[in-house]
Amino acid sequence: MGAAVPDAPPARRRRDGGAVWRGVFVYVLLTTGASIMLLPFVWMVSSSLKREYQVFTLPPQWVPQPVRWINYYHTLVVLPFLHYFANTLTVVGLTALGDVITCTLTAYAFARLEAPGKDVLFILLLSTLMLPYAVTLIPVFALFDKLGLVNTYYPLWLPHFFAVSAFLIFLERQFFMGIPKELEDAAAIDGAGHLRILFIIIVPNALPAIIAVLIFSIQGSWNDFLNPLIYLSSNRLYTLAVGLYFFIGRHHAYWNYLMAGTTMMIVPLLVLFYFGQRLFVRGITLTGIKG
Predict the structure, then answer these.
(1) Mind listing the pLDDT tens digit of every residue in the chain (291 residues)?
(2) Which of 273, 256, 208, 237 is nearest to 90 (CA)?
(3) Phi and psi for 9 in degrees, rounded to 5?
(4) Which of 15, 50, 230, 271 has the most CB atoms lying inside 10 A of its own CB?
(5) What is the four-CA torsion angle of 236, 239, 243, 244, rounded to 10 degrees?
(6) Any long-range contacts for 245-251 (C-beta under 8 Å, 24+ apart)?
């Protein structure tokens, strides 16, 4: 007969048992937090399928009776939803293009180029994150008004071609700092300039950070309500965020239609994050590799 296998030491069994219970606690905590975070989304979808008087009933009726899919059809018919959707795509596309190009160039300059006072300039750039948006709102509006660009899309996307987002620049700069400099030195020996190094070495290796910047830019522009409300006065130019506000009147609000429109507005962002989540999460988690 073979030799009996000795039991694990009591200390090891206690450690293994403690690890299991810690894992259970973490999963319960995360599940509880995720459920709380999802409640507003579930309420929105549920409200979009209800009759108007059922939206604020107490206790909440999470499963609509009856389920009114026709609310989505009415939202598309009552509101020029597809027209506003096309307007939003135009603004978001130009905004994202500007952010990706200019923030990448600026981040590369701060990460790799040498110049007197570069660190001071970078600190000044980061300090703009503490500047409230309301402080620059009126001067920027006055500037675009003097240029005759109010009631056009230019104020919504043009500033993004001048690297206005300190957060996105910081995000990419930190990722660039983690890329081995030996790769660039080898390309420089072969005669590559800064732009060539950026596009053939830095960009392919920093794709997660660039995807993260792209998603942040799209999400911010897609959900932007204040800027279109301030700069656009023509109904034909409205984006979805402003157009959906038509369901809220002075004395009455069609919350079921508003929730249906909001649900349809969120779906593209969910699809975008679903397909880009791996690179997005990697770009966020690796930005602090090297300071």
Answers:
(1) 455 545 556 655 556 656 777 888 888 898 898 888 888 888 888 888 888 888 888 888 888 888 889 889 988 888 888 999 999 999 999 999 999 999 999 999 998 888 888 889 999 999 988 888 888 899 999 999 999 999 999 999 999 999 889 999 998 998 888 888 887 878 788 777 888 888 888 888 888 888 889 999 999 999 999 999 999 999 899 999 998 888 887 777 888 888 999 999 998 888 888 887 777 666 666 554 444
(2) 237
(3) -60, 150
(4) 50
(5) 160
(6) 246/79, 247/79
Q: What are 174's two structure tokens?
A: 């930190």
What is the amino acid identity at position 28? V
User: Which amino acid is located at 204 in the chain?
Assistant: P
Structure tokens at 280: 């997005």
